Amino acid sequence: MTDAQLLAVEATAKDRKRIYEANKEAEVGQEVTCPFCGKKFVKRYSRQAFCSSKGKGNCKDRYWNQANSKRRARASWYGNAGNRRAEYDWKNEIF
């Protein structure tokens, strides 16, 4: 991990939220810091707040999976689904 990534991991939830809000307020073309990984990037469009928002493991999804308790539980559930499928009783599930 780079120094910036280590700093981002150590940041508290309030710090991450503050960085996210500052990124949303920043002008296009300004250099901002990703609230999840700590990487510096130039804001390319007005709604951009993260360094990546597409593809597997992008910072936007990873940030919101940690920031929201329901998404955090769902991400945890799907993260180790292979181990759980053998243990889960699908017959008792109500859809």
Our count of helices gives 5
Shape verdict: globular
The major beta sheet can be summarized as: 2 strands, antiparallel
Number of domains: 1
Strand tally is 2
Rounded to the nearest angstrom, the distance between the terminal CA atoms is: 42 Å
Mean pLDDT: 77
Order of helices and strands: HHEEHHH
Percentage of residues in DSSP E strands: 5-15%
Rg over alpha carbons: 17 Å
Main-sheet strand order equals 1-2
How would you classify the quaternary structure?
single chain
What class do helices, strands and sheet pairing give? mainly alpha
Percent range of helical residues: 40-55%
The low-confidence runs, each spanning 5 or more residues with pLDDT under 50, are none
Tell me about this structure:
The protein is mainly alpha-helical and 95 residues long. It contains 5 helices and 2 strands; from the N terminus they run H-H-E-E-H-H-H. The chain has one domain. A two-stranded antiparallel ribbon has the order 1-2. Helix 3 crosses helix 4. It starts with a helix and ends in a 10-residue tail after the last helix.
What labels describe this entry?
6% strand; 2 strands; two-stranded antiparallel sheet; 48% helix; single chain
